[in-house]
Amino acid sequence: MKAIVWHDVGDIRLDDVPEPRIQDPYDALVQITTSAICGTDLHFVRGTMSGMRPGTVLGHEAVGTVTEVGSGVRNLRPGQRVVIPSTIGCGSCSYCRSGYYSQCVVDGHADRLEAARRLGGEAVDFNQEDPVEVLHEITGGTGPDRVIDAVGVDAERPKTGPAAGASDDMAEGYDAEVAQNSPRTGQQGQSWKPGDAPSQAARWYVDAIAKAGTISVIGVYPVASGLVDPSTILTQERPLAQGALDAYETFDRREPGWIKTVLTVGSP
After folding, report:
1. CA distance 41 to 39
2. How many Cα atoms are found within 13 Å in the side-chain-facing hemisphere of 113?
3. Cα distance between residue 3 and residue 18, in whole Å
4. In a domain, 8, yes or no
5. SS3 content of the chain, % helix, strand, coil (to 5)
6. What is the Cα–Cα distance from 146 to 58, expressed in whole angstroms?
C-alpha cells in the first residue's frame, strides 16, 4: 500500500509499504479513505522532534472503514465507518467512556480561532491580547483548572499586541532553544520552518494555571534534548550510614550550597 514515509529532516516521500496486520487483541485495521495532516507531522519534517527513524509512516488523523478487528475489540466490527483522532485514549476509563477525549485552548491564527468559536470555545488571540491575563480574567482570577498543550515545541512568539513585548525580551533565549532543539532543520525557504519560541506555550500555561490545576501535554517536545537536567538540583550527596543527621541539620539551617540533598544507601 502507499503511505507518506519520513526519510530524513525535510525529506518525506510517498512510498510502497507492507500491508498492516493485527498484532494485538485490541488492534483494529482501518481502510483509510481520508487522512488529515496534523501539526505533529510537521514537527518531524521540520526537525523539531528527535529520535525519528527513517521509514516511519506519518499520519494519525483519519477516517475510514474497519476491515478487521482483534479478539479483544468488542465495540467495532468490519464494515463500520470510524474516525481516528490524533489523541490516544485508553477507551476504558470513566473519561473515555464519557467522551472526554480533548478540548479546544489559545491561538494566533484567525481561522483557527473562528473554528474554536463555532465549537463553543472562548477564543483568545495571543497577537491581540495577553493570554495569561485573559485566562485569569475569564476565570475570576484563579486561572484554568485544566490546560492542554496541543502545540509543543513548534510554538510561535506573538508578533503584535501586549504579549509581544515580553516575548521579545526572551528572543535571545528562544533563539538558543531553537538551536538546541533543532540542530538540523528541514527549512526550505518558508517551508518546514521550526517554531521560533519552543517554550512559549509552556511558559504561558504555567503562569496561567490555577493552583493544583492539571496540565496535559499532547504537543510534541524533544526527548532527552538536554534542555533541562533534573540532576542539577542535587547539590549534596551523603551516605545514610555516616553523616545523615549532620546533613539534616545543615539542610535545616539552609546553608549555602545545600539546595537538595540525597542520602545514599550502601549494600547490606
Report:
1. 5
2. 12
3. 10
4. yes
5. 25, 20, 50
6. 29
Contacts of 243 (CB under 8 A, 6+ apart): none
User: Residue 169's pLDDT is what?
Assistant: 84
Report the C-alpha gap between 164 and 146 in whole angstroms: 25
Q: Answer whether residue 105 is part of any domain.
A: no
Question: Is the same domain home to 183 and 234?
Answer: no
Q: Summarize pLDDT for 198-240 with one digit per residue, the tens.
A: 889 999 999 999 998 889 888 888 776 566 676 777 788 878 6
Q: How far is CA 63 from CA 46, 76, 83, in A?
A: 25, 14, 4
Contacts of 237 (CB under 8 A, 6+ apart): 261, 262, 263, 264
- Contact call for residues 153 and 193 (beta carbons, < 8 A): no
Torsion sign, CA atoms 164, 166, 168, 172: negative
Check if the beta carbon of residue 101 is closer than 8 Å to that of residue 89. Answer: yes
Residue-range definition of the domain harbouring residue 249: 230-264
Give the burial class of 204: count Cβ atoms within 10 A of its Cβ; 0-12 exposed, 13-18 middle, 19 or more buried: buried
**Which residues, given as ranges, of the chain have pLDDT below 70?**
87-97, 99-104, 120, 224-228, 230, 240-241, 245, 252, 265-268
129 is written with which cell numbers?
A: 491580547
3 state DSSP class of 26: coil
Mark whether 187 and 238 lie in a shared domain.
Answer: no
Exposure b/e, 111-135, CB count within 10 A at least 16 = b: eebeebeeeeeebbbbbbbbbbebb
The count of structural domains within the chain is 3
Give the predicted TM-score (pTM) of the model. Answer: 0.55
Q: Is residue 249 part of a domain?
A: yes
